[in-house]
Amino acid sequence: MSIWSVIGSRHLPASWASQVDxxxxxxxxxxxxxxxxxxxxxxxxxxxxxxxxxxxxxxxxSVFVPGGLSLVPSACASxxxxxxxxxxxxxxxxxxxxxxxxxxxxxxxxxxxVRASAGVVAFVSGSSAGSWFTVHQAVxxxxxxxxxxxxxxxxxxxxxxxxxxxxxxxxxxYQFHYFKD
Length: 181
Hints:
The protein is of the alpha/beta class and about 180 residues long. The chain is about 40% helix and about 25% strand. The chain has helices spanning about 15-30, 40-55, 55-60, 75-85, 100-115, 130-140, and strands at about 5-10, 35, 60-65, 90-95, 120-125, 145-150, 160-165, 175-180. Helix 1 (about 15-30) crosses helix 2 and helix 2 runs parallel beside helix 4.
């Protein structure tokens, strides 16, 4: 059983929640577990999808938060409680409430998500700086990466060692293809 990350923009439009749910369903159907980041937007849509599927989806899945549970967005708190009660794991970081410390902890959290993953699916909207940072970390590690560029493919970021190509099995998604040596 491998773990795939489902991450993305905090500002992902609600109209994309069903697409996040479809990706979670697809990954679970293929025998994977899910990890995500515990924020609003994409992370919350992913968390809701896991909880709605019950213990079979939550067990073996993880949510990484940059600090303690007291620092998670209020919209996520009850969903995280339900996730844990269904067997999911919350991995807490060391962030305090100071802005510089919290931002540094977010980057550490994103790196931890990538290290825990066999692949990454990212829903990016707007600048999505944290999401693109996470995608870059996955590319650096040579992991499979799929991106849904909510605002269009022209906003896909370029990374050394490969290029984005349309994903045949997921409408609107692009897979990062690594150049062969």
